Amino acid sequence: MSVRELVVLGTASQVPTRHRNHNGYLLRWDGEGILFDPGEGTQRQMLRAGVAAHDLNRICVTHFHGDHSLGLAGVIQRINLDRVPHEITAHYPLSGQRFFDRLRYATAYRETVGITESPVAADGAIATTGNYTLETRRLSHPVESYGYRLTEPDGRRMLPDRLAAHGIKGPDVGRIQREGTVDGVSLDEVSEVRHGQRFAFVMDTRLCDGVHALAEGCDLLVIESTFLDEDEQLAVDHGHLTAGQAARVARDAGVRHLVLTHFSQRYSEPEEFERQARAAGFEGELTVAHDLLRVPVPKRR
User: Cα(280)–Cα(274) distance, rounded to whole angstroms?
Assistant: First the structure.
């Protein structure tokens, strides 16, 4: 059975707290698992969340600050220890190649699994499968940072009333889907476009064009909101977003489900992030993330 959900492994920024681990997010997309920004402690959080190394197919790193990447060493070594039977692809900013190399070979271990390095150097598509296209956009942070967006191809939704009106039934339904026409009736006459689902992952950044491009039309948007609105100048200075800024991005982009995360340790009341996001005008489904949370991708419209 296909599963599309976000498994939140950690939600802290810069330093972990008693209740929040460093970053870590797993997107289950049908039969694949994409691990985003494995910070320190991710391997243990995977264990607590019931996520195995065998579940991973891709690792995507937005940038090489420690809270987003120090867990790479442990995760990669666990992949090898467990002898994952399939190849795993790692995406990360090309400018941080030296950091990836150091983390991949931080200590001695026996390599048993092929990890394909696929660094990111510009905006655009970086992978295309039968189930999705994965693309990146440059963000605005003191070090080079990229956000990721996954888009499912559009499909077709068959319309029973139109099929019946044209007398198309039984095997002819499959035939018109394969061939495009049956007895002079076109596929367009008996179906409509079913837009593919869209997911975006936006971490450390100020407001910029990349943020808006990644968020546009998303069913599920995971976005940092390190600061509350009263600390907006701190957010600008350090290359981050506030709860209100993140919510306005989601509002303007037509996001269906907004997940706020990456919270500064200075705040102890997560409900304030939700309050400020609502005050900013976001009316869709809203989640203030906590560790080990599971968030389903919204059903297709």
Answer: 10
Query: Nearest Cα to 292, choosing from 14, 13, 21?
Result: 21
Contact predicate 181/137, CB 8 Å: no
Rounded-to-integer distance, Cα 84 and Cα 81, Å: 8
Catalytic residue among 37, 55, 67, 183: 67
E-assigned strands of 152-236? 155-158, 181-182, 185-186, 191-194, 198-202, 220-224
For 23-79, how does the pLDDT look when each residue is reduced to its tens digit (9 = 90+)?
Answer: 999 999 999 999 999 999 999 999 999 999 999 999 999 999 999 999 999 999 999
Task: Please check whether residue 72 is in contact with residue 24, taking contact to mean a CB–CB distance below 8 angstroms.
Answer: no
67 is annotated as an active-site residue? yes
Structure tokens of 45? 């959080």
Q: What is the CA radius of gyration of the chain?
A: 21
Maximum pairwise Cα distance, the chain: 68
Strands (E) located in 61-131 = 88-91, 115-117, 124-128
pTM more than 0.85: yes
